[in-house]
Structures are given as structure tokens and as C-alpha cells.
Amino acid sequence: MVAFSPDTFAAFLADEDDSPVIMLNLLRFAADGGRERYATYLALARPILARFGARILVGGEGLPVLTTGDVTGWDAALLVQYPRRAAFKAMVDDPDYQRAFQVGSSALADIVLQPLRPRPDWL
User: Fold this and answer.
1) Residue 108: inside a domain, yes or no?
2) What are the Cα distances from residue 81, in Å, to 21, 23, 30, 34, 63?
3) d(CA 23, CA 84)
4) What is the pLDDT of residue 55?
5) In the prediction, which pLDDT does 26 show?
6) For 68-73, which contacts have Cβ atoms below 8 Å and span 24 or more sequence positions?
7) pTM for the whole structure
8) Which pLDDT tens digits describe the chain residue by residue (123 residues)?
9) How is 1-20 classified by DSSP, letter by letter?
10) Three-state SS for 15?
């Protein structure tokens, strides 16, 4: 099940909102056609993302994890940039997105959403 942590989500939205935010999406697909349903979700979500000024920066299929330790790989990952935290919140609340998200949610066995603050000095 895909759900936000209420306290963490509220803190995320309450933080400064004057710069873009990048959302790391780590995805594990449901065994019963999840990968295909996720492709359908992306087709539905792309125009909605654009309406809120968001864009997918990169997306890819997971390959075997190269590090040791208690690590389980992910089926796929995406980096999505939003112009502001408020744009992310507005998109999540949008009725069109909520309908698309039902498809996306049904595609996933697990997901991690990790917001990232861009660091141009690291590039």
C-alpha cells in the first residue's frame, strides 16, 4: 500500500518552499502485471505533471545492487523535479492525479519517496 507518513509529509510541506525539489521514487512492482500498469500510470501522469510544472528527469530499470550488506534492489527508479513543494502538494490533491494514482498504486508492491534538495555545487 502506498501512503504518506502524515507527520513527515506535513513537515516536508512546512519547510521552505523557495526552490525546486527532486523526488526520488524507488519502485518495486506488483507481481501481477505491475510493470505494465505502471507504464499506463506514467502515460496518465505525464500531462498532469506538466500542468504543475513538474518533469521526470530520469527513469530506469533497476540492475543488480553492487554493494554489500542488507540491501534489496528495486525494480525501477525515477527522479521527478517539482518547481516547489506546494506544486507537489497541489498535484497530489488534484482529482485527475488521484484517478491516475489509483492505477499507479495498484502497480506497486512497495515504494520509497525520498525528497532531495538540489545541490548544484555537487555537480
Assistant:
1) yes
2) 6, 6, 25, 24, 23
3) 11
4) 96
5) 96
6) none
7) 0.90
8) 577 888 998 898 888 788 899 999 999 999 999 999 999 999 999 999 999 999 999 999 999 999 988 888 999 999 999 999 999 999 999 999 999 999 999 999 999 999 999 888 998
9) -----HHHHHHHHHS--SS-
10) coil
- Residue 87 CB neighbours (<10 A): 19
Q: How far apart are CA 76 and CA 102, in angstroms?
A: 19
The boundaries of the domain holding residue 34 are 24-63+72-117
Name the residue type at position 40: T
Is 122 a domain residue? no
- The CATH number of whichever domain residue 40 belongs to comes to 3.30.70.100
Residue 39, CA distances (Å) to 14, 23, 44, 87, 118 in order? 32, 18, 9, 23, 27
Residue type at position 119? R
> Are the CB atoms for 23 and 79 separated by under 8 Å?
yes
Query: Which amino acid makes up residue 93?
Result: D
Q: Is residue 6 part of a domain?
A: no
Position 54 scores a pLDDT of 98
Q: H helices of 61-112, where?
A: 85-93, 95-106
The answer to whether residue 50 sits within a structural domain is: yes
